Amino acid sequence: MSGFSATRVLAVMIKEFKQLTRDRLTYAMMLALPVLQLLLFGYAINSEPRHLPTALLVQEDTVFARSITSALRNSAYFDLVAQARTPAELDDMIRRGEVQFAVTIPGDFTRRVVRGDQAQMLVEVDATDPSATGAAVAALAALPTQALGADLKGALARPTAEPLFEVVVHRRYNPEAITAYNIVPGLLGVILSMTLVMMTALSVTREAERGTMESLLATPVEPIEVMVGKLAPYVAVGLIQTAIILVLARVLFDVPMQGGWLGLSLGVALFIVGSLALGFLMSTVAKTQLQAMQMSVFYILPSILLSGFMFPFRGMPAWAQALGEVVPVTHFLRVVRGALLKGQGLEDMWRELLALVAFVCVVTALAMARYRRTLD
């Protein structure tokens, strides 16, 4: 047996580099994944969200009410995006997820402040994600001393250091700030994405590698028939997974289930079909099971980071939120959390369901186009 040869080592190295250049998809994934992780973790992730959308209901037009409005507007944590006219309108905004905070200044606020008669201001918080609102709620503690300090002078000056009014915080949908109420329903979207997309992509690619796909292509089966036939068993798998997760969420973690079952059922069905169609689309692009696995990971990673599952969605910069709106998991998580925690109906979640319909239609059309080219 000959000794170590640097020439032979160099030959093997050259062979491996040539192999990488031929497998361009794998090479691109190796370079793109670290860059994607660096950008997302470095720029998009923020554990202390600011500029949270806030709605305001002012039941008196006074100097004190305007001072509080200005203080909220100047805060880094609140963005006043809507002015409600009635308590019902304010309730609809926070229930639909349009705003994170709903502030009510009552009609007797000024009179009670002047008299020192325990004035109160109500702040309702969408607390489905406790980590998204913790810092903003803490900032409210300074509001009584900062907002009206310039207004209470002269005869209105208060001799004591007591707060001028009380900020009553009402944490809705998750008053005890239990993290599991937010994470466990979100796991439904992540688990379905990881299993269904990856299983479908690997299953179809495996048939192509083993040569059994050639026999299927030789039959008079239409592309849509192939797709429906191959994906139908996985639909049943996805439904079983959904049932198991929901039962365990209730039994083990006591996740509240407020209703909204029709919207939730539609959302689950659309998301399962869309995820399977996406896996089928990946299988038409991937040439090997390794490539199919890499493409699945490339889809799942931003789905976890940009959807609001692990980090507050509104804590991300505008460009990251725009990318997150393209991710179907984002809309599915809103459907699941809205149904289970808020009891939302179809009239509240129709935008998210429409986004899932668009996801299914686009991915299915692309999969069919790719499959026809494969047939050719």
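Above is the first protein from milestone M3; the second protein from the same milestone is given next.
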Amino acid sequence: MRSVELFAGAGGLAMGMSRAGFRHAAVVEWDHDSCETFRHNQRLHSHDVDEWPLFEGDARAFDYGKIAGEVMVVSGGPPCQPFSMGGKARGQMDERDMFPQAVRAVRELRPKAFVFENVKGLMRESFTSYFEYIQLQLTYPDLMRTTREGWEQHHARLERHHTSKHVRSTYNVVYRLLNAANYGVPQKRERVFLVGFRSDLAAQWSFPEATHSEAALLRDQWVTGAYWDRHAVAKRERPALHPATQARVDRLRDMPLFDSTPWATVRDAIADLPDPEKNPRDAVPNHVFNPGARSYPGHTGSPLDLPAKTLKAGDHGVPGGENMLSHPNGAVRYFTVREAARLQTFPDDFVFRGSWSESMRQLGNAVPVRLGETVAVSVANALRVIEARDRRRAA
């Protein structure tokens, strides 16, 4: 199954798509440092990126006519800074808003499905109208905005079309806010996914159900103690249990077992890595200590025994508080690039290029590989069902 990846960034979603069985016909990314990371890993023959046909440049300049043959899926993460909770949040007024290019790719390639993701901020109240506009554009990608239309006028025209009688959508579009921690990623990271299937396919699809939960982690830590035993953490070394959490744990003691797996924690992700403050330089790729971390109100780092806080890229450099590890004794230090890569579920053989700040920027903008793969696998399975159905009908 062939796909096209737009706004690839550090490659988290692209890698997830590859692992789900999609073969990229093009990977488009404008950021030079991210492209250098891809090229470096291609020279290393890293299996996830080795055969990616990389186009370094503006998505607005990409010619989809050069892609021969059917493209099953278009995927990507349009730059999130216009909608980020931590940025200027200029939305549709921001020149970095690339959703129009996502719509162009769907219009010109007519894939069977698409998968786009963005930050939680896209769903804030101030962007409600524009978020609805994005969905309508993806539903009817052929109804293009004219040169004389503002986006509000185009939005109104799409609404009139959508509510007209006997109108059939080109794509059936759904969206959902997913927390990566609920799918086995050791990080509380919420991303909006927009998924669409071409309406003539009559696809039946829904977002994958969560597989991991906080309740299961609390049970593992404070009811059975299996978490601490697994990590060989003595009772005197365990963090204190907050009174509010204690009340939840007490309720869990009387509850029947449930199917979900415990949330993955920072300790789960990095326990087997050497201490970077004692680690010889470059003994582990990208695992180099970066000094100077400090805690301040609102930026206290990620506890070792919970999923990490959301890694962030920052509008003017990397924000330290979100990218720090907080030990049970209160000491803090910056995550190394390798640790951050594990929190984003990148494989250890994927090496990031650039300084700590640059590499952390790439990671702070990325989709966790495991989350991308989870969504991509569900889309791939739905497409295989459709292909099997069509073969039976043709037989």
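Note on the second protein: DSSP finds twelve helices and twelve strands in the chain.
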